[in-house]
Recover the amino acids of this structure.
């Protein structure tokens, strides 16, 4: 799409960063990049809801993280819009040394001295991939998608921490943060509008808000 911006013709492109839907994780572990973690029944319903929500958008590019939950979240969108999705390793979840563990006070993970060294620097963070590296690779994925969708829209399926980190970097906030304060719920959309190659606005929406845990809708046990 072209537009007139301050007297000159510009190209407007939108990049939507979609967080995947709910994951089947009965053990409550930090699954990170581990294989085999797929969407729950609720997560599949979230993915369908997003597909319905974006059905009339001018999305011409669909790219997902290579992890199963992201690929599954993008599948209904691909079917609805008739797109052939691709994967991009730069959209993957952040690396974390605590993958496969339950992580919290009192459950054993934090009580073991061998883990304490990994908690020494929350600003980097010392337990996983540096925030600066997460932001940089996400910007690369977004720029590739912007060029591919030039003048249209692209949907990129990723994960909460990478999405929040790149948004924070773009908005000029510090990258270390309280995870409880991230504005990036399951199946949410963070939308970046570009005029030519410059980001001019950021918007956030939750098309599956009524399907979030605690919102009232129930799903079958074991989903």
């Amino acid at each position: 799409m072209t537009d007139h911006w301050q007297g000159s013709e510009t190209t407007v492109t939108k990049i939507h960063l979609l967080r995947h839907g709910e994951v089947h994780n009965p053990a409550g572990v930090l699954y990170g990049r581990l294989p085999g973690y797929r969407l729950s029944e609720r997560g599949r319903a979230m993915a369908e809801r997003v597909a319905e929500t974006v059905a009339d958008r001018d999305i011409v590019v669909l790219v997902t993280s290579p992890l199963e939950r992201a690929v599954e979240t993008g599948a209904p969108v691909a079917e609805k819009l008739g797109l052939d999705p691709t994967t991009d390793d730069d959209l993957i979840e952040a690396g974390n040394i605590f993958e496969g563990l339950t992580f919290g006070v009192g459950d054993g993970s934090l009580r073991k001295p061998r883990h304490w060294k990994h908690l020494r620097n929350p600003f980097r963070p010392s337990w996983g991939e540096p925030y600066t590296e997460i932001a940089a690779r996400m910007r690369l994925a977004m720029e590739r998608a912007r060029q591919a969708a030039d003048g249209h829209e692209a949907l990129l399926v990723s994960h909460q921490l990478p999405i929040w980190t790149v948004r924070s970097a773009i908005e000029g906030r510090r990258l270390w943060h309280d995870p409880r304060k991230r504005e990036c719920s399951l199946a949410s959309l963070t939308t970046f509008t570009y005029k030519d190659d410059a980001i001019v606005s950021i918007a956030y929406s939750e098309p599956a808000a009524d399907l979030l845990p605690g919102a009232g809708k129930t799903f079958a046990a074991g989903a």
